[in-house]
């Protein structure tokens, strides 16, 4: 089974030279272009105690992906804390943020042709988007 089934669509054909140049520009080697690419998504941000530690987890996951011979690419999405916005109009954004999170992960994964995704949630409100 070909592990770079999706990323191979931009890393293998000569017609995708611009895509390959962009990937080489972010530090990939020619050898890396033949490896599967893994998108690592997270709701990391500094404004919430549930999410602020996720940057360290991001780095650990990224290193683990690299150690097994895959190419990791880290990206963020939004995170909303109803714990902070509790009792205010801001609390109404907690549930709709789930769809935004799921949509943003799907958008990056599809547009960048990543072969796999590892998602790192932070709070109960942003765990369920991983289950869509």
UniProtKB/TrEMBL annotation:
Keywords assigned by UniProt, alphabetized: Lyase
Every Dihydroxy-acid/6-phosphogluconate dehydratase N-terminal domain range: 35-127
GO cellular component labels: chloroplast stroma
Molecular function (Gene Ontology), one example: dihydroxy-acid dehydratase activity
GO biological process, one term: branched-chain amino acid biosynthetic process
Superkingdom of origin organism: Eukaryota
InterPro entries reported in the protein's UniProt record: DHAD_IlvD/Edd, ILV_EDD_N, IlvD/EDD_N
Family per record: Belongs to the IlvD/Edd family.
Name assigned to this protein: Dihydroxy-acid/6-phosphogluconate dehydratase N-terminal domain-containing protein
Protein species of origin: Quercus lobata
Native organism taxonomy: Eukaryota, Viridiplantae, Streptophyta, Embryophyta, Tracheophyta
């Amino acid at each position: 089974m070909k592990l770079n089934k999706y990323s191979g669509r931009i890393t293998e054909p000569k017609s995708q030279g611009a895509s390959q140049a962009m990937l080489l520009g972010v530090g990939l080697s020619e050898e890396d272009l033949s490896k599967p690419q893994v998108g690592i998504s997270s709701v990391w941000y500094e404004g919430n105690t549930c999410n602020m530690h996720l940057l360290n987890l991001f780095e650990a996951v990224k290193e683990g992906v690299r150690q097994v011979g895959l190419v990791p690419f880290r990206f963020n999405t939004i995170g909303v804390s109803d714990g902070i916005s509790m009792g205010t109009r801001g609390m109404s954004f907690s549930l709709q943020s789930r769809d935004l999170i799921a949509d943003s992960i799907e958008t990056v994964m599809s547009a960048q042709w990543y072969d796999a995704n590892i998602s790192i949630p932070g709070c109960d409100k942003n765990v369920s988007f991983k289950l869509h």
